Amino acid sequence: MSELVTGEAVALELRPARLPSRALAVVIDLIVAIAAYTVVTVALLVATASLDDAARTAVSIAAFLLVLVGAPIAVETLSHGRSLGKLACGLRVVRDDGGPIRFRHALVRGAVGVVEILLTFGVVACIASLVSERGRRLGDVFAGTLVVRERVPQTRTGFLPPPPPWLAGRFGQLDLSAVPDALWLAVRQYLSRMHQLDPQVGSDMAQRLAADLSARTGTPVPPGIPPAAYLAAVLQERQAREARRAFAHGPQAAGAQATGPRGVGPLTSGPQSAGPQTAESQAAGPFAAPLGPSGTPAPDSHTPSSPAPSTPPAAAPTPPPTESSESRPHTGFAPPA
Known about the structure:
Blueprint: E1 2-5, E2 11-14, H1 19-47, H2 53-78, H3 84-89, E3 91-95, H4 103-119, H5 123-131, H6 138-143, E4 145-149, H7 181-193, H8 199-217, H9 227-258, H10 271-274, H11 279-284
Antiparallel strand pairs: 1-2, 3-4
Helix pairs in contact: 1-2, 2-4, 7-8, 7-9, 8-9
């Protein structure tokens, strides 16, 4: 991985192309260019058969410059750094800041490439690529460009490696309420891509994330635990808490759906919600008068009240025996208390 800094101070991690892939791309481009140059040369020899030797030499030089120098420059400019060979090998030419190349970059690379690739049969380009830290040849150095790998092998980025078994449940007492969602996302992305990173870059990133996470939780990282294992264990603890919270609210949510509007009671019918009923209310049907607290019918506000008796009131009559819930018919109506 090579870290490039753009003009907006954004660090880009790119994979520079090495000598084998670049050599294969150059060979493909040269095969296509030589084949096109051969066809153009034969056509020009047939077309210029009546000219003298000087004219033929001038036409041959012009065809050489046009096909072997001008055509690669035009292709790299129009395709933004992807020639036929680079496209086949998954490579691309970019600027030092990671942006697409322009005509001047392609012109410098093509002009220097005539010397270090065509005239020296690629010896100078191979030596420069081996000496350079990022595999750049002289044309890339003078033009300020870099050949990077545009197509990388696909890996499973959604798989999160589990923590070691001896760390299971060890961080159950951590306070994770102060950890922001952005830090959790960064930890998850690192764990899912840590096998793709350079070992040194991945180790530094794990240490930074572990330090940030321990600062948010208020508990330092226990000694002897690798940062990556610490991150995986804490992330698993958070997922376990979220799962317990979700399953703990499940039965309550199910009970809330079974209750009636405004939480009055369960929406059930039958003897469970009807309560005890007397034989008179069963015989009277759903329009029976409500009963008082002593079991007698409650006075109706629309009927005239009788005068109070002068003699002391007799004892309240005992209510008739109620029927059991098994013998009562299921009417589905509960008289008001």
